[in-house]
Design a protein that fits this description.
Jelly Rolls, disordered N terminus, 7-stranded antiparallel beta sheet, 3 helices, elongated, alpha+beta
């Protein structure tokens, strides 16, 4: 029985897809704060939209606690006209495969060390994936207040949020198969609030086809019959 269960575990093994600069430690420029004017200020990522205040913040300037390293990415919604702004992976991360579940994980935080709660809570955000630069499914929404503020004027550390999407078994039933895969984070204006991002991961898990399940179940059945027969011989 252990042989079959081991085979099953192998079928569901997750594969990590490389996300270039997913921790935002590679930036252009030498300042501790890289912001406002350069849409390509973070290597491997592109800012787009109407907000003119975004980029990378050094941990001593960010008033937040990066999960690792020294930098976080941020988007600051300054005015009602800033609606919305995206942070998107610059290049394709993979080619979308059939029978696969893709899971995106993004760490999101808010500024710490300030009592100004008017901006120290992430804006309305969504995280999701793109196929040939078109949104896939329904992105995960993170509304204002999801990451709570602390009563002493400091603010919570980063929390992980996920988005998952599963493809069909062939191009005939799922036209996304074969398209390029990208990550996108969207911030929508919400009273000038600031959002911080760190540690982005992407995993893919292949879903066994029906024929594979049939082979697995057949193997388990054969193994069970063998065990029963051996026990009868002993008795």
């Amino acid at each position: 029985m252990s042989i079959s269960l081991g085979f099953y575990t192998g079928l569901a093994k997750a594969e990590t897809i490389l996300v270039p600069n997913g921790d935002f430690e590679q930036i252009s420029g030498t300042n501790n704060i890289v912001t406002k004017t350069n849409a390509n200020c973070i290597t491997g990522w592109v800012f787009s939209g109407t907000i003119n205040n975004y980029g990378a913040l050094y941990k001593d300037s960010a008033n937040s606690l990066p999960e690792q390293g020294n930098f976080v990415a941020f988007i600051n919604t300054d005015s009602p006209g800033d609606n919305p702004t995206q942070l998107t992976s610059a290049e394709s991360l993979a080619t979308i495969a059939a029978n696969t579940t893709y899971t995106l994980t993004v760490s999101i935080g808010n500024p710490t060390g300030t009592s100004d709660t008017s901006w120290a809570n992430p804006a309305n955000l969504t995280i999701g994936l793109l196929a040939d630069d078109v949104e896939i499914g329904t992105p995960t929404a993170i509304p204002i207040g999801t990451i709570p503020e602390n009563s002493d004027g400091t603010h919570s550390q980063f929390q992980d949020f996920t988005f998952s999407f599963t493809t069909g078994d062939s191009f005939e039933v799922d036209s996304l198969i074969g398209q390029s895969l990208k990550i996108q984070i969207t911030s929508v204006y919400a009273q000038g609030r600031q959002s911080h991002f760190d540690n982005i991961f992407l995993e893919a898990v292949a879903i066994p086809e029906p024929s594979t399940w049939a082979l697995l179940l057949g193997g388990i059945g054969l193994l069970t019959m063998t065990i029963v027969w051996q026990r009868r011989q002993v008795n």
